[in-house]
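Q: Start with the shorter request: fold the first protein.
A: Done. Sequence, then structure:
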Amino acid sequence: MTGGARPQRVGLIGLGAIGRSLANLAAGRDDLTLAGALVRDTGKERGVAVPVVGSLPELLALRPDVVVEIAGHEGLRQHGAAALRAGYDLIAVSVGALADPALQEELLGAARASGRQIKVASGAIGALDAIAAARLGGLERVTHTTRKPATTLLGAEGATLREPRELFRGPAREAVVKFPESVNVAAAVSLAGLGLDRTEVCVIADPAVERNQHLVEVEGAFGRLRFEIAGIPSGDNPKTGRIVAMSILHTILMRRAPLVVG
């Protein structure tokens, strides 16, 4: 922290695996503090030193500078628009919820009315800045292939799988409904590029892989882009990757950074 600026105060909606990882990454930093987290069960032990509250008004009473949603689709649905209307910028992770057009319009309307902003954290994916830039020149095709360990996607059934199984192929709007915990990244790619109806998603359960893999391929007036990542799954929740909490922390820090890249 420089110039004597006070630390950013961050309010969390949710304190599950991602929230605990974020708390561990943020511990000891002097440029931000986790002011509190809105959770459903305030009596549950979570193993991190973050105050918990049971309602959005209680969270906002802790005077955060920004609100971060890490509570899943229902958490964004219940609290996202209200946080925006209350005058807070919102960093969102569970953007697969925007497959519901009514929710997307509610959130955008709340942001416009309050003059605040919804920022989609890149989460377990990358290249969103390049895709969004390329969109301005015209895109022709965006495909997103998600390949995860079979047991992550199929549970006990996956342990008997001997070869890759394609579980889904189709538009992102359908994919994020069928696999809400696994393809929020596809929604982020879609929002950056061609949208939820024109982005093709393929979901594969693969017994031969140990890491969550995402392959994004884009073609347009700019040329061609291919982005691939093999993320190490979170120890608390194998359906999400370790990099997600890192991405959220980066997004928070960039709000005040003197130099922003991308």
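Q: Next, the second protein, separately.
A: Sequence, then structure:
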Amino acid sequence: MEPYRGYRGGGGGAEDAWRLLAPLFPWIVAALLGAWLVSGLTYTVAPYEQAVVLRFGKYLATTTPGLHFKLPLADQVIKVSVEERSIRLPSGFVSARSPEPSYRGRPANITMEAGSADSEEDTLMLTGDLNTASVEWTVQWKVSDPDQYIRRFPADQGDVFAEDLLATAARTVMNRLVGDYSFDEVIGPKRNDIAVAARGDTQRILDAYASGITVTALQLQRVVPPERVKPAFDKVNASIQEKQKLENEAEATRNKLIPAARAAKDKLIREAEGFASRRKAEANGEIEALLARFRAYERAPELTRERLYLEAMQDVLDNVKDKIILDSDLKQILPLMNLDANGAGGSATIPNSPTTSSRGGAR
């Protein structure tokens, strides 16, 4: 009988311990529930994130990085990365941080690198002049409205669907814009215009879908001819460069010769003007001299006539080499005075010859 009582005594001790702990069980459960509720009162938003708070499924607020409070069970917090991301089109990309598709937890300074290149056919686009160009570009984007973003895309794969939408919109816009210009314009002067227009049109499509995405930049990376026509294009490009070189040289020569020609023209004009002024002054002087003689002739006609005669004879005799002076009063034998430079300066006589003179003459 004793061993039996001992067994009963051991079982009674366990029951007694359970009876002692049973009143504490509700308190333990309440403590665990309270700890869980307290831990659900706060949440933390990373520096590269924003959080959308839903209260009973209805939008309540968008919170910025830091520590925040919420109502347990009533509030749902969905965190969205708002850092800037990049996608290379049309070939796609991989993350420089890790090959995982998710962006959560990626630092803001991580960039995107181009993934494996697709075949050239994926990058070909038809231009306005019915040529083809290989076009690749980069789109930088970020989430600007987290509320719209989580409502448009599922929380578990929102980034993947967002990239699909962005890539589709960007490729549609780029194909249309490239088709509006010729090949030479696409690779040359209209390149920046196409990039600016593509960014604006892509943003309008995203806004129409209420995606909550903002395109921050769009840059054309490669705009080149297809490989099969690249040699011919290089030759054309070389000829264009040679043409521009010759045009530049011709322009430089033109800029050098035109000022010299203008200077020569101005010089000739000044010389002609000076010659005209000089001739005009000389003509005016001759006119004044003639007028002075005319006025002198009016005052003393005989004296003026004699003076003019003497002046005329002086001009004539200055041009005569051999001069013979005759006395007009002699009738038969004429005395001759040799005025040659080589003569002796004596006189000679010549046979009588008829002479005519006026006031004494020279012959």
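Q: Describe the second briefly.
A: Residues 1-10, 93-118, 344-363 have pLDDT under 50 and may be disordered. The first strand starts at residue 42 and ends at 45.
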